[in-house]
From TrEMBL, chain A:
Segments passing through the bilayer: none
Upper classification of the organism: Bacteria, Bacillati, Bacillota, Clostridia, Eubacteriales
Assigned keywords, A-Z: Iron, Iron-sulfur, Metal-binding, Oxidoreductase
Annotated protein name in UniProt: Hydrogenase iron-sulfur subunit
InterPro entries from the UniProt entry: MvhD/FlpD
Molecular function as annotated in GO: iron-sulfur cluster binding; metal ion binding; oxidoreductase activity
Chain ranges of the F420-non-reducing hydrogenase iron-sulfur subunit D domain: 13-135
Keyword Iron appears in the UniProt entry: yes
Source taxon at top rank: Bacteria
Amino acid sequence: MQVKETNEFKPKIVAFCCNWCSYAGADLAGTNRLQYPADVKIIRVPCSCRVNPMFILRAFQRGADGVILCGCHPGDCHYTTGNYYTRRRMTLLFSMLDYLGIEKERTRVEWVSAAEGAKFAATMNDFVATVTKLGENKRLEDLRCKAK
Amino acid sequence: MQSEMIKRAKELLASGEVARVVGWKAGEFDYDITPGVFTTAEELDSAFLYNDLCEANLSKYMIAQSRKEGKTLVFLKPCDTYSFSQLLKEHRILRENVYVIGVPCDGKVDVDTVKATGLTGICSMTSDGETVTVKTLYGDSTMSKADAMSERCINCKSKKHVVYDELLGEEGDVVADNHRFDMVEKIEAMTPDERFEFWRNELSRCIRCNACRNVCPACSCEKCVFDNEQSGAFNKGASDSFEENMFHIIRAFHVAGRCTDCGECSRVCPQNIPLHLLNRKFIKDINELYGEYQAGENADERAPLNTFTTEDVEPSIVYERGGKQ
Amino acid sequence: MQKIGVFVCHCGTNIAATVDVKAVAEALKGEPGVVFSTDYQYMCSEAGQNLIKNSIKEYGLTGVVVCSCSPRMHEQTFRKAAQSAGINPYMVEIANIREQCSWIHKDIWSATEKAIILGKAAVAKVQLNAPLTAGESPVVKRALVIGGGIAGIQTALDIAEAGFEVDIVEKQPTIGGKMTQIDKTFPTLDCAACILTPKMVDCAQNEKIKIYSYSEVADVKGFVGNFTVKIKKKARYVDEDKCTGCGICTEKCPVKNVPNEFNMGMDNRRAIYIPFAQAVPKVATIDANYCNMLKNGKCGVCSKFCTVGAIDYKQQDTIVEEKYGAIVVATGFNPIKLDDFDEFAYSQSKDVITSLEFERLTNAAGPTSGTLLRPSDGKHPHTIVFVQCVGSRDTSGCGKTYCSKICCMYTAKHAMLTREKYPDTDVYVFYIDVRTPGKNFDEFYRRAVEEYGVHYIKGMVGKVVPRSDGTLMVQASDLLSNEQLHINADLVVLAAAIEPDKSARSLATMLTASMDTNDFFTEAHPKLRPVESPTAGIFLSGVCQGPKDIPETVSQASAAAAKVIGLLAKDKLTCNPCVAQANELMCNGCSSCEKVCPYGAITYSDKEFRMPDRTTAIRRVASVNEAVCQGCGACTVACPSGAMDLKGFSNSQIMAEVDAICK
Amino acid sequence: MQKQDKQELILRISGVNARKCMRCGKCSATCPAYDEMEYHPHQFVYMVESGNIEPLLSSDSIYKCLTCFACVERCPRDVQPAKLIEAVRLAVIREQDKNHMKKGDLPELLDEDLPQQAIVSAFRKYTK
């Protein structure tokens, strides 16, 4: 396959999506052919509360420029309470990253229901734009993992 | 106080009520006081110490000691009882095997604080409760005790014991108006670049000696994720800036809502990294976002990360607040 | 090392048009563990599945990656195929290169690159997959139907017919729902009560059906096959078993000014009341908001007259706990409030009414005994204007964005019946579109126009102004003749949009069933699983899922019943094997996991362990009840030592995916 | 200017998406100036949408609109016909390259019986 040479910065975005709402929302965005950049790669998890802060740090270590977590709207969790824990955990984690001087805009939590395909696409477009503006992740990088 | 403690310890040993005593004894240097286990009256007489230099939090030792044959007597300062109580809440200590004697504390003298005043070649330190006398190779000097205390004691959060079987000395109160979050606020007020610079400067000194982890009462996992090759976070020594950050972020996150702010992590750090400022950030956020919470204070209250309310703030609050841009 | 086969689907041109599928198959050949990689037109077809099965046998594959549509579509299909070829179904992973790749990207190069990365992530995950065996859980052979309207009634009757116990929970004092208020039904014009009340009686008499009237669902716990539901029976201050429904109490009750909700508040009832003559159960209920005895302890008339001693002023709300295998939601609808539509003067004039109020005005059991009279002065109206789409298809924020579906037909019915009974009336219907898909529906509408002379006018009413002479000035536009009309009407009937019952939102939260932005319950699949909620064991019946007329509601009710019967016919259900698992060697016994588990699936026990120094120690360790665990993973993050992990979505599997994506 | 350009100009000035119109006619039904108009609000929307702009530009209808915004208020699809009419008016004025009203014209127009709002509205309308 021909490799296209581009100089523009293409961010690497990892999106953790809960199986019941947000992953279905992402599928709906697909069904409705709503475009968002190919930089976003989705990892399916049963619930947003499955996402360990270690996964997020790992993503940054391995070269991600932004990590977004999508779950059911609070109150609508398939497992009743999972996203409430997510909300607390991620609030504290993001606050800590910010405290360490790491750009807080690189991490985000968004609630996307199975019916919100349009919101999913809009969220991803916005997040990619934000991260692209920030540029490459330098503050939480592991140089050994950078393919150069 | 020291003689009173030795007397009670001897009585309890003699009556067979306890099989051993956990307290403090002199380490390599006489200002370097270390935890010790005593099983006889003679050992107590010859080595047991309690003075203004006994900084160590003994609660964590009870995880192992409480599983031994017979009861263990432990002396706990007010702030240590918070750690002890938190460990009880997490079922880590078998309460029935521990006899807790609460001892008073009006702040401990810290050798690193003394060194920071410029003194070098320190041979010994003594305190009479008011004044600290420091003998150095270059002569003696004195300073007020307040100047020799570490930040955690100056901003003491409580002089009240939350758990004990008996108390020696007078019971104190929770110190409501302490200033322990001042430094956190100062860092929060920095620009992201300054904060990054600040923490890089601190964390880049980490040599991953694991002293913070080993001393921390909340870090009592049977197997730490950083020692577990299967965990995905396995890492024996940081080989670059990421791993330095990773270890301390994850450690702080794992103890968030469980850390009682005893400050042992910063005390033992050979590189003098202010690790307690990471824990205090979580404590401050928890207090501000989810209501005042002091780990270890209340046995029935749920840890803030193990509970929620439907009206909790959204993570986006992080974007809305914070210091200068 | 696994031996992994990669199968890249073209999905016709759905994938192949934007993703170079051959390049994807080729690129994945080089991944560790991949021993076979190919592409095919339709992987989900029989031929495609055979390709997978044959390759498993031929290459001795231990793991399979299918790059295709969403796992929500065909994960089961490919798992079954793998299983029939002799490997564990959980050794299959799907890379979603359709919904999350080919359909959203236009550029072939970047779509292909992304598809390769998604494929690599799936390969990396399969490397770490382990065979999983599903446990089993028993099925409670009893169903709960929430809502006792025509949808709930039909569902309950069908389930009972199949021999299963079924309970109906209805918040009103009687079952029957909105259909009891309707006079006649389109397009056949048979009387609603005549076809509904026998079904209500059937429910009451069926020994498999238990009706909890004047009750609400207070709490739902558990999972498919094994729900525990708390039902709150609201105090009706009448002993249901003793009350004979004779009605003497309602005749004697001195409080006569309670707005009668059955007649849309157009007449009054007493404080103790039976909603209507054919109510089921036919039992009186005291309205605590109006009863003098309950409010200030002065009265007790009903108790004096009751011959069977059924009145009990001390009755309290009670909570009943029941176990169910399946739950059907049939919570129905209400017309929207018209507060945001001042232009139609609904709140200013009594003679501007909703269609449901019109139903009561024409019903023999209604406030006017079926004679069409103006609510304001009781006179016969000579000019009636019907306005369609009031609050429907409204994106301005005042109403609902959807089409309420039933209004075109009932308005045609109202117009036709009015002209038939009162040929001297002029009837105008203002419409935007007349939507009549349905058997004999368009014929019905055309009859209203052609045989009954109803004036259908394409256009909308702009405003209704009450005038001093008691008439209503209706200003509207006729788009076909291109003129603005001013009609003096005696009665204006608004076809208000319908919305899901307000109770549905909190119920959805209890059931963990998802809803759309309009508060309609979402179905598991819009075409293929229209009567199931995505939450296993929860089924949907009637308007709670979307606007429907009666025939559609009844069809869906029976369909939901069929699904419930299929579930209850099973003795055991296969559990999800992707559950949490505690590594006892690493467990601290700290109870963090237990505290965050929404199912109470985690318990602790003291166990003896051999320590490295050959001593033994007793430690408190967690264990997971696999039948109860639903696999959310909340515990895995609460656990600081990483002792708690989730099968099928393990820490190492997710991190392998992260690594593959970020590489 | 090409026909299509005019359409785009009007849509751009007004910020209206004419395609949202579902042809219910509620705008015309609610319009107080309906009888004065050659082209009624719903026709405006349809004509702009279909690019049939010329007749609008030369019609008196655009000056009959009172800018009372009843149509905007009532429209169930949030199409905002009044803004379209305003935009057509603007297009005419831009084409003529002159204002219908100047500041200096105002004093002699002041009249005790005339509500100030009307003058302000007219001034706003005819000076753009």
